[in-house]
Every structure is written in C-alpha cells, then in structure tokens.
Specification:
141 residues; 1 helix; 11 strands; cell cycle; mitosis; APC10/Doc1
C-alpha cells in the first residue's frame, strides 16, 4: 500500500475473540466496531525519502507536532508491507493544510497488491485545503 500523506491507522476484521469496540489510537473521534482492529503496528513501514528526524518514527508517533517530511523528487510515498495478506477496511489519514499549505498533499492515492510492482489503485482523492482526519474506505466486495 502506498500513499503520499501521513497514515494514522488501517483496520481489518479481527478474529471472533478480538478486542472490544473502541477508538483507534490517536483518533478520539473515530469509533471502531468490535469486528475491526488497528493493523498499522503489524506492518513494516518505509518512506520514499525523508529529512533527518522526520522519517517513519515522526510519521507514526501520534504527536501532531511531529511529521514526516519528504526530501526528494515526487511522487512521495509511504509504503506499508504486511507479512501476510490482510483485508483492509479503511485508512485514516491526518493532514493539516492550514499548518503548511506548501507541503500538505492535495492528492492521495491508495494502492494495494501482492508486491510493489503489481499495485492496483483502490482510491485516489484530490482535495483543496483539508485539515484534520480523513477516512478512506478501501473495502471491496
């Protein structure tokens, strides 16, 4: 999966004995049903480039004062690789256009596949000036 913005959480159905319903870490407004669980921590994260101190750790630390900052030619990518197939239901991104309009993405593309070279587009969203969390439903029937 790749995206050119911060990825806060991804979720997938949990086993029958999964965690109780609740909120995703870092997301006080997003309530998740009992049959979903956060999967971001189970993936191996990488970014296409980053400035020193603004890499994956800053992207994932749940601190709105830190962030990923790319340092290279576009497109800027966030990759999450899982050891086995997972069925993603949604991706939650936090972006803040008001904080930094020159570097906040205006277009996000979410892709998935069996490997880096066979990714298929699930969703592409273009928005002007968003600030806050955005949820992308990536579940397919």
């Amino acid at each position: 999966m790749e995206s050119d913005a911060e990825e806060e959480a991804v979720a997938t159905p949990a086993p029958a004995a999964g965690p109780a319903a609740g909120r995703l870490k870092g997301s006080p407004e997003l309530t998740v049903d009992a049959d979903m669980r956060e999967m971001a921590k189970t993936g191996a994260w990488s970014v296409s480039s980053c400035k020193a101190g603004n890499g994956v750790a800053a992207l994932r630390d749940d601190n709105l004062d830190t962030y990923w900052q790319s340092d290279g030619a576009q497109p800027h990518l966030v990759n999450i690789q899982f050891q086995k197939k997972v069925q993603l239901q949604l991706v939650v991104l936090y972006v803040d256009f008001k904080l930094d309009e020159s570097y906040t993405p205006s277009k996000i593309s979410i892709r998935a596949g069996d490997g880096f070279h066979n990714l298929k587009g699930l969703d592409t969203v273009t928005w002007p000036g968003i600030s806050g969390e955005s949820c992308f439903c990536v579940a397919r029937n």
